[in-house]
Design a protein that fits this description.
The complex is a heterodimer of chains A (about 600) and B (about 300). With about 600 residues, chain A is mainly α. Helices cover about 70% and strands about 5% of the residues of chain A. Chain A is elongated and about 100 Å long. Chain B is an alpha/beta fold. Helix content of chain B is about 30%, strand content about 30%. Chain B contains 9 helices and 13 strands. Chain B has a 6-stranded mixed beta sheet, sandwiched between helices. Chain B has a 4-stranded antiparallel beta sheet with strand order 11-12-10-13, sandwiched between helices. In chain B, strands 2-1-4 form a 3-stranded antiparallel beta sheet, covered by helices on one side. Chain B is elongated, with a radius of gyration of 22 Å. The termini of chain B are far apart. The relative contact order of chain B is 0.14. Classes of the chains: A mainly alpha (about 600), B alpha/beta (about 300). Chains A and B meet through helix 9 and helix 12 of A and helix 2, strand 5 and helix 3 of B.
Chain lengths: ~600, ~300
């Protein structure tokens, strides 16, 4: 293998696992055509995975502090860059094509318009071309990723149908654009890509490695924009260790506050000009709608995740976390401060600040809840902290921000998959043996609806199923916080395994315990009585008589064991007969069978 | 009279990273007030040992005690009594030098401001400068100030002088470290891991040489100097063919013979004297020479 191939192989290896993740997420709608989760993962892989792959190639050199080493090899910068670009383009194009097909033909067939498809191709091309410039400008993967996102937003805002703003007759900006628009966008995208490529090459040729430490990272350091008076409060003091930890966390989360400020200003702008839909469940239909309305939602989601990752990820990368562990303050307290701050920042940036902003603008128009759905906000206040905590767990298990960000999606996806797997196993078991709830009700001759309230509650609030997982993850995150994570996929899988196992078990237990119950003892009793031609005169049966006449399921046989059933014709014209079941426990159940064959049942002493 | 509680006590420590064993069956004991050197080549297991002492790594086998406490159980108590300078120094790039020290001081019960000012002067550090703009050596200087000023009972220094210029390095070792120990004579302990053994020569009271995770040699510095000697003999004619198997190294150069010995000095001296050398001298090896000799003697001949 010659030297060039060795270098190319190194580039391939650096992108291989993220590429696999993006490919799998992109191909999911093809494999699972009707799964909404697969569709969401596909869209995420296209809009987040593609720029991440594009920036990762160069960003890795900053991340591992190997930029100087890379540039000082006795090969021209342009050749080194060309090798990187070759691998990066191959990775982005292959993943992009898969995600593109998955998105337009399987996940979002309603978006399958020439205009959208052309825009998506332009997106991939411009991302590849501009990755070098933005990653070098930000000196980090995440920074490059965010800058690319910002540029795309401006780009699509520019090429969208701005003339249709604001909405007319309650209808938001309408498409479809003419063919000339597609041509114009293509020409513009190619020109823009060429310009960015040229700028990237130029920047690399003139690039000076002035530090290579995180102090050079645009995202983490950046220009100081905070007013001095406010900055003074965030400055650490010689006393008050706890407050200093909090101040440090605030400062570590600086990029989140900056992005949040921009997002809130933008949201206020949309709300003031009545460009926000009144229904928060509004789903954009056109590219322009996506471009205008998509960023606040995506930013909130991204900030929720980033809040969990950023602080610990950056400390792990710079080495300050290990050094903090030697300070005379317990690791538990440090972990707790970090966790609470992350969850607070995530919830505040993703939910509270946007909601308060829209409420403030809504109150100008006389209705604070003009853009706010209280029930949705309530749900977000539960889901967003969980998202932040999940990302925090990733930061505890992984070594650095980028690694944690890359792992966040597979980790978060693994838990619902494990839950579905557990529920399926439980359902399969319950089909053959019945649920635990059925066993208890039938063995102790209880009312079949004895646990109905619990089942009803569990069915409507599925999040409680994840409580054991969250508790294990909480404990595990503390343990991982103290350790030095390994940089291998195997390590992450080993960390993830207990969570997957607990989720699988809890879902299985809930499903097999009571959620998958299909036991209908009254229906079975009714059918058995029908076979005995009951209802014509008052007659008494035992549970054993019914078992002989009809193929009752084992739980029903158990339930009716030792019982007596009195059947009498009904006096009403609607009902056929009335059966009173005297269960062995002393409980009495009344079963009314109607002329049409329907049943109504109730139990009581 | 009871012997004092050792500042550090390690018994049969073992730690592996996956299948690679970093430390194997290491035992050592450091009494309060001593300056203890941990010497070894790169990857010998010095940093892993230090990390186990600091509870940054949990020992997989064996026991670690710092001031009689298990660092995993009495975490804060142990950390309260020591300060650490890591091999790779990192600070928050947005904090100034002043803010970094204020931040670190907030965790300590005691912080010597006078000493801090003195060290600023000595190292010519600008307190208003952002740590992100400091050079590698300046960051090390800042880490050293942060470790010295709390005046803890123990300093744990992992390659503390890497990146320092020769003047600052010499000054730090001779003046700062010396002054730190003299500040509370007999009670302040230093555990230092370094490659620059010569520069710590006068400070080290006791040391352990590690190789591939194993302790090769643990000795008092003075005893080591007594045991490890260089013997030079010059003869009037070609020297006789003598058996020097007990010597660690033998070098013949014309009429001269140079031996490096470990404990067998008196016996070899007698044998050389028996052949009436023109000149016969002995001198103690430096710690660095002892380090090299000890590791060379471990290598297969």
């Amino acid at each position: 293998m010659n030297a060039r191939m060795v270098r190319i192989r190194k580039e391939v290896r650096a992108l291989f696992w993220p590429w696999c993740a993006v490919m799998i997420a992109g191909a999911l709608p093809v494999l699972l055509p009707h799964s909404p989760t697969a569709a969401k993962l596909n869209v995420l892989s296209f809009f987040f995975g593609i720029p991440l792959l594009a920036t990762l190639s160069l960003g890795n050199e900053f991340y591992h502090r190997t930029f100087s080493l890379w540039l000082t090899q006795p090969v021209s910068r342009m050749q080194l860059w060309a090798e990187k670009m070759l691998v990066m383009c191959a990775a982005v194009l292959s993943a992009g094509v898969v995600a593109w097909i998955g998105m337009f033909f399987f996940a979002l067939p309603e978006m399958n318009l020439t205009y959208n498809k052309a825009a998506a191709i332009a997106y991939v091309v411009v991302t590849m071309a501009s990755a070098t410039y933005w990653t070098l400008a930000a000196r980090s993967t995440i920074g490059g990723f965010i800058l690319i996102g910002c540029i795309f937003w401006l780009f699509y805002l520019f090429v969208g149908e701005i003339e249709n703003l604001p909405p007319r007759d309650g209808v938001f900006y309408t498409v479809p654009p003419p063919t000339t628009a597609i041509t114009a966008i293509s020409v513009f995208a190619i020109s823009f890509a060429a310009l960015m490529l040229w700028l990237g090459v130029r920047k690399l040729a003139r690039f000076q490695v002035t530090g290579g430490s995180s102090g050079e990272d645009l995202l983490m350091a950046g220009p100081s924009v905070m007013p001095e008076a406010l900055a003074e409060w965030f400055r650490c003091r010689p006393s008050g260790a706890f407050l200093n930890l909090v101040r440090k966390e605030f400062r570590l989360l600086r990029p989140i506050w900056v992005i949040e400020l921009l997002a809130v200003v933008y949201l206020a702008f949309l709300a003031i000009f009545r460009l926000l839909p009144s229904s928060p469940l509004f789903i954009p239909e056109t590219v322009l709608q996506w471009v205008v309305l998509g960023p606040p939602a995506m930013t909130c989601l991204a900030l929720g995740g980033l809040a969990g990752i950023l602080s610990l990820g950056e400390e792990r990368m710079s080495g300050t976390q290990a050094w903090h562990m030697t300070l005379p303050i317990s690791a538990r307290r440090q972990w707790l401060v970090k966790l609470v701050m992350a969850v607070f920042a995530g919830t505040a940036c993703a939910v509270l600040f946007p909601v308060l902003t829209t409420m403030a603008v809504g109150s100008i128009y006389g209705s604070p809840l003009l853009y706010v759905d209280v029930s949705l906000v309530r749900a977000e206040l539960i889901v967003l902290p969980i998202l932040t905590f999940s990302c925090f767990w990733c930061a505890c298990a992984a070594n650095g921000t980028v690694r944690a960000a890359i792992w966040a999606m597979p980790v978060i996806a693994a838990i619902p998959f494990a839950s579905q797997g557990g529920a399926w196993l439980g359902r399969e078991l319950a089909q053959t043996t019945g649920t635990l709830k059925d066993l208890v009700a039938s063995s102790f001759h209880l009312s079949p609806s004895a646990f109905a309230a619990v089942t009803e509650y569990a069915n409507t609030r599925v999040l409680w199923l994840f409580i054991p997982t969250l508790l294990v993850a909480l404990f595990q995150s503390y343990r991982l916080f103290r350790t030095t994570p390994q940089n291998s996929a195997l390590w992450m899988l080993r960390c993830l395994l207990p969570l997957v196992a607990v989720t699988l078990l809890s879902s299985f237990a809930a499903s097999a315990g009571f959620l998958s119950s299909r036991w209908e003892p009254f229906d079975e009793t009714h059918h058995a009585l029908d076979k005995l031609h009951a209802g014509t005169a008052k007659i008494e049966f035992t549970g054993e008589d019914l078992a002989k006449s009809s193929a009752l399921t084992p739980p029903t046989q158990r339930w009716l064991k030792g019982s007596s059933i009195t059947v009498a014709p009904a006096h009403s014209s609607l009902s056929a007969y009335l059966a009173t079941i005297h269960l062995a426990s002393g409980l009495e159940c009344r079963l009314t069978v109607t002329q049409s064959g329907g049943t109504a049942a109730s139990c009581g002493n | 009279m009871n012997s004092p509680i050792p500042a550090i006590e390690i018994q049969n420590l073992a730690y592996s990273y996956g299948k690679a064993e970093a430390v194997h069956d290491l035992s050592l004991r450091v009494l309060p007030g001593r300056c203890y050197g941990l010497f070894g080549r790169n990857g010998a297991g010095k940093t892993t040992t230090m990390k186990c002492l600091l509870n940054l790594l949990r020992p997989q086998r064996g026991q670690v005690r710092v001031f009689g406490h298990d660092p995993a159980k009495a975490e804060v108590e142990v950390k309260r009594r020591l300060a650490y300078v890591p091999d790779q120094v990192a600070f928050y790039p947005w904090m100034s030098v002043r803010e970094t020290l204020d931040y670190l001081a907030s965790f300590r019960e005691h912080w010597n401001r006078k000493k801090e000012e003195e060290l600023f002067e000595r190292f010519r550090l600008d307190p208003s400068k952002a740590t992100g703009a400091l050079s590698k050596g300046q960051r090390t200087q800042l880490a050293l100030i942060a470790a010295i000023c709390p005046e803890t009972d123990m300093l744990v220094l992992d390659e503390p002088t890497s990146g320092l210029d020769p003047i600052v390095r010499r000054e730090f070792i001779e003046t700062v470290i010396g002054a730190y120990q003299e500040g509370n004579l007999g009670n302040r302990t230093i555990l230092v891991s370094t490659h620059l053994i010569t520069e710590f020569e006068g400070l080290i009271d006791e040391f352990t040489i590690m190789d591939q995770g194993v302790s090769v040699l643990s000795l008092e510095a003075d005893e080591a100097r007594q045991r490890y000697q260089r013997i030079r003999a010059r003869f009037a004619q070609m020297p006789p063919e003598l058996d020097f198997q007990s010597a660690l190294r033998v070098r013949r150069d014309g009429r001269e013979i140079e031996l490096i010995v470990n404990g067998s000095g008196p016996e070899l001296l007698e044998r050389l004297r028996a052949h009436n050398p023109e000149a016969l001298t002995t001198e103690a090896l430096t710690l660095e020479e002892i380090f090299v000799a000890a590791l060379k003697s471990e290598e297969p001949r």
